[in-house]
Amino acid sequence: MGDNVEPDVIFGQDPNNPDAGTEPEPSFPGSTPEGPRFGLNKAELLLAVDLCTLAYDTTVDAVMARAQSLGIPIENPRIISMNGSEALVCILYNTAVVAFRGTEVGTDLYAMASDVGTDLEARSVNLNIGIGLPEEADAEMQGICHLGFTKYVGQIYGEVEDFLLQNKDRAYILCGHSLGAAAAVLFAYGHFVATGRTPQRVYAVG
Questions:
Q1: Among 3-7, 130-134, 162-166, which stretch is predicted with the lowest mean pLDDT?
Q2: Nearest alpha-carbon partner for 181 in 55, 8, 11, 31
Q3: 63: burial class by Cβ within 10 Å (0-12, 13-18, 19+)?
Q4: Are 73 and 83 a contacting pair, CB within 8 Å?
Q5: Across 16-128, where does the E strand assignment appear?
């Protein structure tokens, strides 16, 4: 095992020591021992990785089975899917969670080809076009982004936003792995511009 490999810490695995792994990590700025459950510490980062993993499951039953095996007490999971864009939405610790799926690899050749096509559609596009920012937005709100990533987000943006609006009294987090990480970042920005709401965290993994 290399020196940089983190020890195994599975959130909620030890019922006799439920806070194991939640100690603040000095190397993570902003980490505090009394912070919210989704504070920036090792256990929460590993939880975010597990949430990203759940997004790769293709049925709610599979999501629930994996979540139970990982000790993650999610509630009301639902998979949002449209033309190859997918996200898992659920409630966890009274927090709304959106986990965007990344590039598929494995036996589903159609899904994998669709995602690779998204990844390769790498032409830069203005954020106005990509995620629907107003054309008169201030200069500091402008920028360029990956066309394929913006299309991926755009196909499910409305349904994800509806989920957050239905849970507007809860804090929310966004996460994703690979292509899903890009989607989480772009959605966070677009949702902030549209509503003024910011996520409690955005976890971009890999």
A1: 3-7
A2: 55
A3: buried
A4: no
A5: 75-82, 85-92, 95-100, 124-126
Alpha carbons 175 and 185: distance in angstroms, whole number: 8
Nearest residue to 133 via CA among 187, 76, 56: 187
Q: How far is CA 2 from CA 5, 41, 42, 49, 99, in A?
A: 6, 21, 18, 20, 29
CA pair distance 90, 46, nearest whole angstrom: 18
Helix (H) or strand (E) holding 52: helix 42-54
Distance CA 10, CA 43 (A): 7
Tens digit of pLDDT for each residue in 16-26? 555 555 554 44
CB 79 within 8 A of CB 43: no
The whole model's pTM is what?
0.71
Cα pseudo-dihedral 124, 129, 133, 139, rounded to 10: 50
What residues have CB less than 8 Å from 136, skipping those under 6 apart?
none
Question: How is 128-189 classified by DSSP, letter by letter?
Answer: HHHH---TT--GGG--EEEHHHHHHHHHHHHHHHHHHHHTTTS-EEEEEETHHHHHHHHHHH
CB atoms within 10 A of CB 51: 27
Rounded average pLDDT over 42-70 = 90
d(CA 169, CA 122): 37
pLDDT tier at 46 (50, 70, 90 boundaries)?
A: confident
List pLDDT tens digits, range 146-172.
677 788 888 898 899 999 999 999 989
